[in-house]
Amino acid sequence: MPEVAFNRYYPYAELSDLLHAFALENPSLVSLESIGKSFEGRDIWLATVTDKTTGEAKDKPAFWCDGNIHASELSASTAVLMVLNKLVGGEAHPLLKTHAFYLVPRLNPDGAEWSMETPPRVVRSSTRPYPYLDEDPYGIERQDLDQDGRILSMRVPDANGPWKACDDEPRLLVRRKPGEVGGQYYRLMPEGIVHNYDGMTLRNRRMPQGLDMNRNFPGGWRPESEQHGAGPYPTSEPEIRAAVDAITKRPNICGAVTFHTFSGVHLRPPSRYADADLPAEDLWTFQEIGRVGTEMTGYPAISVYHDFRYHPKEVITGVFDDWMYEHRGVYAWTTEIWSPQRQAGITDYKPIEWFREHPVEHDIALLKWSDEKLGGKGHVDWKPYDHPQLGKVEIGGWDSHYAFRNPPSEFLEAEVAPLADWAIWQAGCAPRLGLREVRVEAAGEGTARVRLAIQNEGWLPTQVTKRALEKSMVRGVQGSISAQAEGDWLISGLIVQDGGQLTGWSHVPASGFGWHTDPTTDVAVFEWIVRGGATYQVTARHERAGTICIDVVVP
After folding, report:
1. Element (H, E) at 530
2. What are the residues whose beta carbons fall under 8 Å from the beta carbon of 175, sequence distance 6 or more?
3. 394 and 382 in contact (C-beta within 8 Å)?
4. Which of 13, 219, 253, 467 has the fewest CB atoms found within 10 Å of its own CB?
5. Which of 322, 220, 226, 205 has its CA nearest to residue 270?
6. Distance (Å, rounded) from C-alpha 68 to C-alpha 112?
7. Which residues does 417 contact at the CB level (< 8 Å), separation at least 6?
8. How far is Cα 86 from Cα 435, in angstroms, rounded to an integer?
């Protein structure tokens, strides 16, 4: 059993070796394959995890987890590794006998490699230049000017600057108040050099790598003019095309979590329309899964459209969980790992709005957390620096790459362990076919009636979502019969019969009053009349709920 260090982040080569070791040392549980190549030609590894002695993964309900679609969100890879370790480590998880997992720890290996350099090269997603191949000749380019291995901030003295030192904690910068004059003010900008500086105007240099691969999925995709980072067309990026292709080829996937950073929340669809436009049954189920997620992890479960928009007049499109829900018809979540605010004792805040507006007391609490828990490494004291173009400036401030973007290594294991537990719990909610009864009865003149009754033993219905049912995304359960005998062995009944979709118990109300009835809508019955003196195989199959095959001897 390979030993995973959950107090560090793995570069691509080590991560690949680790995944291969899992497959090599656990051949009855883990298979590893490449689902495609990244822009720079690295393999994108998919681990399929199930107990192969009880059947193939494709014949079991399955759950998908991926991570690190965004370049610097390295703890997302760790979360998927934690799922793998919990399933295989020590004893195999009992769920593997009846379910399967598809795990992609690092969907964006190129960007992750950049983010692990010293100093880090931080891009949103891919290292592919987009939408412009030419470099921007103007603006501030992030660089480690003082060669300390970090890229921090510069504060530049400016009488018209919007920032000033905090009265209660001078290491912090706070906003200048309306009408305030007569103090020491600053402009704040990234540590770096200014290309073609004219001595008066400053702006950020446009980064050549402008893709956001979590805007490149087919669900609600919009062009670059409407959605920044979307790519030239849906699945234009090889990493996203690989994921979409892998998922589509595995129709047994019943749910998904994609791990991101940061905010410490579980995000659910939809991203571009209100909850009122969801089927009520799907909203209720999303809310119940989210409620359990909050209980297990402490992370709030919130709607992207209602609670996680970057601007109240804008929506986000082309994202993974929207595509999984709208095109694949399953419940999918985006889990944003890590909340420095909650680490500092700040609990009453909204993740996106916090960056637009919050009290200075929150900054002071975060600074105290940095001092006491991070050894002062989260916020670096300002120090003078002679900038080649701007003159005397100071370098320091928040080290967001260390303290905000991912958990510092000593916090990593405790942060991702409950997230993995929630993902595994969700997998166990999937629909699953179980055998209720096989009955053989004499039908006269050397024939017999074979009756197969199967039941959905899972919490979710076989189609998983109401949306999938509305859009006919999934075929119902099918019963079929075959014979080892030659000749006319089938007297009555179709060889392949449709049984429709089967409910689970996710729809059951809170109280069973006297007028409540639980109908057997979770059961399907298939019947055939066959000739005796032969062995038959009866099969029930649903692409999401699994397969049951039974040999029946008819005397």
Report:
1. strand 523-531
2. 162, 163, 164
3. yes
4. 13
5. 322
6. 7
7. 82, 86
8. 29
Model confidence pLDDT, tens digit, residues 472-507 = 999 999 999 999 877 889 999 999 999 999 999 998
User: Does residue 512 carry a pLDDT above 80?
Assistant: no
Task: Give burial (CB, 10 Å; 0-12/13-18/19+) of 252.
Answer: buried
d(CA 155, CA 397): 9
Distance CA 267, CA 498 (A): 36
For residues 538 and 439, give the distance between their C-alpha atoms in angstroms, rounded to a whole number. Answer: 11
Q: Rounded to an integer, what distance in angstroms lies between the CA atom of residue 13 and that of residue 34?
A: 14
For the cut 90, the answer to whether the pLDDT of residue 99 exceeds it is yes
Angstrom distance (rounded) from CA 253 to CA 270: 19
Read off the pLDDT band of 192 (50, 70, 90).
Answer: very high
The residue assigned the tokens 């129709």 is 251
Helices (DSSP H) in 383-531: which residue ranges? 400-403, 409-427, 466-470
User: Does the predicted model carry a pTM greater than 0.90?
Assistant: yes
> Which string of DSSP letters, residue by residue, matches 21-61?
HHHHH-TTTEEEEEEEE-TTS-EEEEEEE--GGG--GGGS-
Strands 186-190 and 153-157: antiparallel
